[in-house]
Amino acid sequence: MESLVASIPAGGAAAAAAAALADRAGLVRPKNRLNAPPAEPYAVPGLPLIGNLHQLKEKKPHQTFAKWAEVYGPIYTIRTGASSVVVLNSTEVAKEAMIAKFPSISTRKLSKALSVLTQDKTMVATSDYGDFHKMVKRYVMTSMLGTSGQKQFRDTRNMMVDNMLSTFHALVTDDPNAPLNFREVFKNELFRLSLIQALGEDVSSVYVEEFGKVISREEIYQATVVDMMMCAIEVDWRDFFPYLRWIPNRSFETRVLTTEGRRTAVMRALINEQKKRIERGEARISYLDFLLAENTLTDEQLLMLVWEAVIEAADTTLVTTEWAMYELAKHPEKQDRLFKEIQEVCGNETVTEDHLPRLVYLNAVFHETLRRHAPVPLVPPRFVHEKTTLAGYDIPAGTEMVINLYGCNMNKNDWEEPEEWKPERYLDGRFETADMYKTMAFGAGRRACAGSLQAMNISCVSIARFVQEFAWRLKEGDEDKVDTIQLTSYKLLPLHVYLTPRGSKEMNS
């Protein structure tokens, strides 16, 4: 659920306009300034009542925030209606907030849409740090996402990759000259994996009592993943003006409650079917089986945690792998370098998770993709519940905090030519192993992403196997198609590629 960010409206204002406003207001931080910094971060000039909302219209707030960072520095404040928000745009300040100052900034600040969709934080990713969060994170790590949990599902992950490669081979055989839709193949197998892990079964259909009919696997995916992703970025203007909550917003409420109701009905039907299986004595290795055996959760909590396992496995891993294959198809010389590394390390063996520690360039490809195409451009907002300091500035209690990972990863003080996708930047000796996580795509500190190990296992093995078996080439004209869906990094247009099996006549000609 870390990718469901919705408490800031979409945006995009020109940095030049911001700079001009700042200059007139005397707020631009002078270079080589000798006197002490102000007690609080600089404020981006805005308008009365609405603050900076008018500057955040183009649905790319992470890009706007990065432009403002060039004017106001890595930490500044904005006003979103009645709220004061501190925006962090550097890795150093973000890590200070997530680790050193965590006790003061550990509370989630959710939009109205997310509050409804997460049943008021009833999930690992969105719950506030406390007894419930510690308990359910322990559950998901023990049963599914930790080292031992990953071992239990390794065969399932291998089956997923084998199935994708079989589909690719079949599509190429049917029509070698047609570009294939990468996302469609990857999405289907990733959803299969998430269902098996969460429920113990690859569900093809289910009867939903509230709908009065059987729905297909595609309809299950639509209700539990796609509709939820789109609904999570719905903006309720009342989030920015709490004192006007008494005014109805019927269209928003109808959209969110309808989407939430459909998700709940489908998940309830899926869980009830598996409960019947368990009652028949058919125990399986799954997250649901584990949670039911623990017997510590309410029905609502159980439903939400199982749904979280479904949507998280089917979301950010897809985004990262699709972008990695786009970049490798776009840069044949980097693809060749990866293929040669695979040949040197694995020989004639099929790449497995055991090979990953020795595939140095593959790891660089993965982490550079996380940097350049961060699956979560904005970390879900937090609430400063007690006065603290960040980067030497006073941050009052009651302030909201947004970490702009996109801004951190595009920061020219931290990264040379940040706009370029260059896996080699991790191979020049400047980065220790720990620095491979410098992009903070998985967060940091006690709120680090529980699914980081699984994401690396799935994405890295998939990338390596894809390159091991095929040469990848972009569909003509797609080299610059990098648009994303609103404030996510989800590629607007699915990746279409030409695949040539390694060793074929075409490859050797």
What does it look like?
This protein has 509 residues and is an alpha+beta fold. The protein has a domain at 15-128 and 374-409: Uridine Diphospho-n-acetylenolpyruvylglucosamine Reductase, domain 2. The protein contains 18 helices and 13 strands. It has helices at 15-25, 61-72, 91-100, 112-117, 131-145, 147-152, 154-174, 182-199, 217-232, 250-279, 287-294, 299-313, 316-330, 332-346, 360-372, 405-409, 452-469, 505-508, and strands at 42-43, 75-80, 83-88, 107-108, 180-181, 205-208, 213-216, 382-383, 388-390, 393-395, 400-403, 470-474, 496-501. A six-stranded mixed β-sheet has the order 1-2-3-11-8-4. A three-stranded antiparallel β-sheet has the order 5-13-12. It has a two-stranded antiparallel sheet with strand order 6-7. Helix 9 (217-232) crosses helix 10 and helix 13 packs across helix 15. The two termini are 47 Å apart.
- In percent terms, what proportion of residues is strand? 5-15%
- Mean pLDDT equals 87
Could you give the distance between the termini? Answer: 47 Å
Over all CA atoms, what is the radius of gyration? 23 Å
Name the poorly predicted regions: 1-34
CATH level 1 class label of the domain at 15-128 and 374-409: Alpha Beta
Main β-sheet description: 6 strands, mixed
How many E-type strands?
A: 13
Shape: globular
What's the CATH architecture name of the domain at 15-128 and 374-409? 2-Layer Sandwich
- Fraction in helix: 40-55%
Number of helices: 18
* Side-by-side strand order of the widest sheet: 1-2-3-11-8-4
Q: What structural class should be given to the helix and strand makeup?
A: alpha+beta
Q: Give me the CATH fold name of the domain at 15-128 and 374-409.
A: Uridine Diphospho-n-acetylenolpyruvylglucosamine Reductase, domain 2
